[in-house]
Amino acid sequence: MANAQKVMTLADTAQLIAKVHANAAKGVRFEYDGTKGEYGNIAAYFAAHKDGKVYGVKFPKYTYSNTPTGVKTRDNANLAIEISTNDKAGRDDYAPLNAFRVWDVNATVDDDGVPHVTAIDGIDTRFKRDGSNGDVYVMTCPGYYKLDSTSTHNEFLYSDTQYDGYAPLPGVLLPDGSKRPCLLFAKYAASLDSQQRPLSVSGKEIDREFGSQNRAIDYALKKGKGYAGRCAGDNFYIQLMLMLKYATKNSDVLGGCWQYTPQTAVTKAETGVKRVIIATSSAGNFDIGSTINIGTDKERNNTGNYSAARARTILSKTNLDANNTALNLDGDAITTTTACFVSSMPWKTGATDKLLGTDGRPSAAFAANHQPIRLQGIELFNGIYETDADLIVNAVKESDDKGRLDIYRVFDITKASKTSTANYTKIGEFPARTKAIDNSWRYAEDFTLSNGVLIPTGIGATSATGLCDGVYANPLTSQGLRQVRRFGLLWDGAACGAFAVYLANALANRWWHLGGRLSALGRTKA
Asked: Domain of life of the organism in this record (predicted)?
């Protein structure tokens, strides 16, 4: 009987080799499809550039050692990175590696959650970061990770290749299980356009009207079903990159605007000027490049706080005499009176645009905890909380001395709710509270990983041990559905950072120090 199986001839083999080479060639460089108005070979590019290396970092569990410092392992072992500023490019061994390489891009997200890259910085002239060519994202390859745990240590492993036991980064998989061709992360916190649609563009005030879980749902939907407020995938990527690249859980290694609170009176009234005059003795408290309001009300949430000027950047300082210094400002001319005060505010988007490297902060001359930072090309920590759109916490009072904090995640943002957890999955709990520690910051000791979310555990660490960040909660004082707020604001200090969480406000609550961020990862597979 003849063998019915196909026998590969020499010609077949040659054709197969040619096909493999042709497919690889398609991914050698990004190719723009003019008929579609986007880059059509993103997935092929990342496939062609895979190196299969595994980058690890190992941390002791808190019960073994409370240090936040880890050890780089595998192909990560000898890689180094230094902080860059506007004036100096630090060493960066990660920048050229496929698993870590990033590009600034303009892109859209369709209703199914699929990204469409329309321009790439440095490759074509269409790219713009001011909004004239759409939103600005940071693009990177779809990555895969694994968490190995022993009784004493946690080790994160990360690769551009999916080995056995490795999970796709949260957000890689679309709801139907197919893979996104790339991961996109909003480069900037969100501003709003005239139709209240959130944007990721440079040079804008971070909009306080987008700063709630409810608004994240409503306003992102104005752009389309594929858009969301910040999601678990955005958080996990930032936390993982911090740990891998810096072998620490302490984001203070980079900085962040956590301790930048100055307010001072205007000392001389002026009309039609692009500056404000304050006491020379106070001028050193305000950093060049930072953002201020000028107005008659010291409460930053009130309109009077910016009655003379809102969200102005300090361009330089001019010493007028021993008692007076002018802060020179961007924008139109203003009129000030001695009834006005100058207030520090969250930095505008684009504050890190002049960095000479992928990671860092603007200035070595100013305190690290006055400034926003950039990590993997993503601008972070501008002095506001950023609210999660796909997580809800239910604060429950179990007894007079115990409060519980249940965490719920919705995987497809189109099913998110402003009033209920009915379409959500319970994925864990934040550390419980007793009456003695209710309504307070407590420093997290360690973490668990559940459904793509790193959940802080324990309450006994400090700003220099464990996760080095705090969790604020008050389930005994106030119960119900709560927002999950990330990072921190101008004055919450050492408790702030990549792992910090604030859980005390209802889903609709907004304030001046709350903001949001677009996410391209809102539609994901559970």
From this structure: Bacteria
Taking phi over 0 as left and psi of -120 to 50 as alpha, with beta for the rest, 190 belongs to beta
This prediction has a pTM of 0.94
**What is the H or E stretch that residue 245 is in?**
helix 232-246
Q: Is there a contact between 513 and 489 (Cβ–Cβ < 8 Å)?
A: yes
Residue 288: pLDDT above 60?
Answer: yes
Q: Are 253 and 241 in contact (CB under 8 A)?
A: no
The domain boundary, picked from 217, 246, 275, lies at 246
Residue 331 lies in a domain: yes
Kindly report, residue by residue over 78-130, the tens digit of the pLDDT. 999 999 999 999 999 999 999 999 999 999 999 999 999 999 999 999 999 99
Shared-domain flag, residues 233 and 270: no
DSSP category for residue 141: -
Print the domain residue range for 319.
263-344
Q: Answer yes or no: are the C-beta atoms of 495 and 470 closer than 8 Å.
A: yes
Helix (H, G, I), strand (E, B) or coil at 322: coil
| Measured distance CA(418)–CA(68) in Å, rounded | 36
Q: Is residue 199 assigned to a domain?
A: yes
Is position 147 within any domain?
A: yes
CA distance 189 to 127: 19
Shared domain for 293 and 230, answered yes or no, is no
Instruction: With respect to residue 524, please indicate whether it lies within any of the assigned structural domains.
Output: no
Q: Name the one residue in this structure whose structure tokens are 């009300």.
A: 297
The whole-angstrom separation of Cα 508 and Cα 504 is 12
DSSP strands (E only) in 25-100: 32-33, 38-39, 54-60, 71-74
**Choice among 5-9, 126-130, 495-499, 501-505 with the minimum mean pLDDT:** 5-9
pLDDT category at 1 given cuts 50, 70, 90 is very low
